[in-house]
Amino acid sequence: xxxxxxxxxxxxxxxxxxxxxxxxxxxxxxxxxxxxxxxxxxxxxxxxxxxxxxxxxxxxxxxxxxxxxxxxxxxxxxxxxxxxxxxxxxxxxxxxxxxxxxxxxxxxxxxxxxxxxxxxxxxxxxxxxxxxxxxxxxxxxxxxxxxxxxxxxxxxxxxxxxxxxxxxxxxxxxxxxxxxxxxxxxxxxxxxxxxxxxxxxxxxxxxxxxxxxxx
Length: 215
Prior knowledge:
- By secondary structure, the protein is α+β, with helices and mostly antiparallel strands.
- It is built from 6 helices and 4 strands, in the order H-H-H-H-E-E-E-E-H-H.
C-alpha cells in the first residue's frame, strides 16, 4: 500500500509540474480557467492511488533484516525458523544489508502523520472558533450565516459560514459590500472544502497543490 502511495505522489508531482509549465507556456491568465484546471489537477491527484497499476518502487520491509538492525544481533533466528540472520559488522556496527526502505517508510509516515495531525488540530480549532462566534443579524446578513469574533483579525469562511472580525461595524457600506461579495464567492465555490482537500493532498502525497484559490 505504501508503495502505491509513493507511486501516486511521484505521478502527482510530475502532473503538477507539467500542468504548471503548460499554463506558463500558453500564458493562461483567466482566473476562472486557472481555478478549473487546478481543481481538476487536485481531483486527479487525490484519485491517483486508484489509477496506479504496478508500482515502480517496492517498499516491502524485510522483517528479519529490520529486527537484526534494531537488536544488533543475529540470535533472533532462534525465535522462528523463518527468520534468516543477517551478518552484522563487528563492534555492533550497522549491517551492510541495512534496509533503507524501512527508514524511508518511517520518515514518510512521520512527516505525513505530522502534517495530518496539524491539519486535524487546525480544523478542530477553526470549528470551535466558528461555534463560539456571535451570529450577526443585520439587514445585510439576511439569508447568510454570518458570525463575528474578536479572535480573528480579518474576514474568512469556515464551510458555509462567513466569519467577520469584531470591528466589522466600523466598515463603511462600500467596504462591507465588497468584503461580503468576496467572502460569498468563496462560499458559493466551496473553497473551504477545496482547500481542505488540497491540504490532505499535500499531507499524504507531500506535494504542493497551489493556485487553487485566489485569496
